[in-house]
Amino acid sequence: MHTDIGLARKAVTRIVHEPRRAAASSPGVDLGCVLRHAVAAHDRQRRRDVALLLLLILIVVTLPLTFGASLILGLLAGWALVAAELVTAHYHVAARQLKRENFDPRQAPRPPTAKDAARLQAIELRDRGNVVISSRYEPFVGHGVIYRTWSFALNTGRPESGKHVIPFTVHELNTYLSARVAALKLPGMSIADVLLVNGADLLTGVDDRTRAEVLPNMAGPPGAQVSDALLRELREDGKGRARPYLAIRVAGWSGELVSTLFLRCALLSDGDTAFIEGSNCLLAPVRRKYQTVDRLLDSPTFRQWCRIVGEAGIRTPILLVNAPFAVLAELFAPLIRRHQQARQERWIRLRSFDYGAEFSLREEASDWLYYRYFQSLDRELYAKTIEHRVLDALVQFLEDHDIDSSDLIQRQTTIYNSGLFAGRNISIKGSSVRAGGGGQWNNPQPLKQK
Fold first, then answer.
1. What is the predicted pLDDT for the residue at 243?
2. Strands, E, within 268-337: which ranges?
3. Which of 22, 256, 411, 427 is close enough to 133 for a disulfide, judged by CB 3.0 to 4.6 Å?
4. 120: left (phi over 0), alpha (psi -120 to 50) or beta
5. CA 38 to CA 200: how far, in whole Å?
6. Are the CB atoms for 409 and 398 separated by under 8 Å?
7. Cα dist. 400→62, 157, 162, 176 in Å?
């Protein structure tokens, strides 16, 4: 945050200053702590812009009297100011507070205003709930790119020879699958029931009970926790716009690589057909420029001083010219936000407001590149191991309920050999992820469907 003001500005604008919208949580990310540093970085940049504006005014006023000397002196002063800000960001904050051995989330900076403090406190309270509210087409905001989806239908009304089908509920099937997957005991694995819903459906597209739990106050923001009873009721219904999923998550490489399978089971009203769907999401390693903090010394070397001074010299003229516009934007920002909030209030009265999150900090910081060969293999390990366990558990569940599973068993060889679900009544969709360039980090490879 402190070394990428663009990302810090996005975090403040699209999360902190959106008090009615949900905030996208991501596995392994303390969103409240990250946002506190984003607010601090944004505030420091704002103070720098004010100082540069005052310096620019001084240059303009004294320029006719000094025959150009004030311009040279002003540029030198601005150069020193920008260099000092860069040193502060990299070595007084990043190196001393954010390195692995120094990092303490309890020491995150306090927001400068009471309004920002209240918003961040609300985000921290909601950061680890069981509700994901998205404004995107895909409902899995905060969990990365969808790199594989699959689905299939099963005939659950056909009994084994000489037997009668033992009735079951979707809740029983979901509980059984969860227990069987948990028995894998993969390192870094967690399993949770989550509710996925689009933010545009909260006012008109869901039933009253769901709305009461997810959106207790129409003025927002939405809640982050719903009851197990509601999850069970929605799971048995299977047709609503708010849908429960089993989120099976595996975090590896110290949280750099997070694979999540969102699994949903639905039983059609006739009770003779079950629909199973799964979507694999991946959070890739963050960009290397955000990891350089762990290699920073407590103070810059001579070479690093030269690099900072050179970078400051290039940026100073641009920042000086841009300072009036940056300060004006900050002065008018509260008015713009009030106008935006008033517009959102009108949308709420018209029941057309979208409470969902669209921006995810963790996704924005991801590079979508593998930096180690084993990261690619581990993604396959996580996804295929869990998918195979789900399939095996499903076959066993059908057999325990005297349901003919021969059709599914016949496909197992094809499924295991290909790693994908393919065949009659089974569909699979794989997607490629945007490729990136190489560089000096051992030739990183783009994430792609194997």
1. 96
2. 273-283
3. 22
4. alpha
5. 28
6. no
7. 88, 14, 14, 11
